């Protein structure tokens, strides 16, 4: 079950260090997504603990083991998290399309 979208702003958590993240963040924000950033798994846990709304999608950059991370983050995120994997270098255009397929942007 997907987390409910509250207040019309689906939330996307981007984890990793990649130069392609900046354009993706900008495009997601322009589409109306709330974007949270984390450098690594420990940082991601801190971010979701502090964040008070559900996480609607996780984008894991640089070949991080995103499936295990999403499972580990579920207790803090109010349920399962759809994952966009970005092995190697992040392709912002491809990641944006995948996020849009998982979570519809607000209208």
Structure description:
The chain has 4 helices and 4 strands; from the N terminus they run βαβαβαβα. The two termini are 22 Å apart. The chain has helices spanning 21-30, 41-50, 66-77, 92-102, and strands spanning 11-15, 34-38, 57-61, 83-86. It is of the alpha/beta class. The mean pLDDT is 78. It has a 4-stranded parallel beta sheet, sandwiched between helices.
How are the elements arranged and paired?
Layout: E1 11-15, H1 21-30, E2 34-38, H2 41-50, E3 57-61, H3 66-77, E4 83-86, H4 92-102
Parallel strand pairs: 1-2, 1-3, 3-4
Helix pairs in contact: 1-4, 2-3
Neighbour order of strands in the largest sheet: 2-1-3-4
Percent of residues in helices comes to: 40-55%
Topology as H/E string?
EHEHEHEH
How much of the sequence lies in strands comes to 15-25%
Low-confidence spans: none
Mean pLDDT reading: 78
Number of helices: 4
What is the structural class?
alpha/beta
Anisotropy-based shape: globular
Distance between termini?
22 Å
CATH fold field value: Rossmann fold
């Amino acid at each position: 079950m997907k987390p409910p979208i509250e207040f019309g702003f689906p939330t996307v958590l981007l984890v990793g260090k990649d130069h392609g993240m900046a354009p993706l963040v900008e495009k997601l924000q322009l589409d109306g997504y709330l974007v949270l950033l984390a450098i690594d798994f420990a940082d991601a846990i801190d971010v979701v603990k502090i964040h008070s709304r559900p996480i609607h999608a996780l984008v894991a950059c640089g070949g991080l083991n995103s499936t295990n991370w999403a499972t580990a983050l579920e207790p803090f995120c109010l349920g399962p998290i759809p994952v966009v994997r970005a092995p190697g270098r992040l392709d912002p255009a491809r990641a944006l399309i995948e996020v849009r397929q998982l979570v519809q942007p607000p209208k």
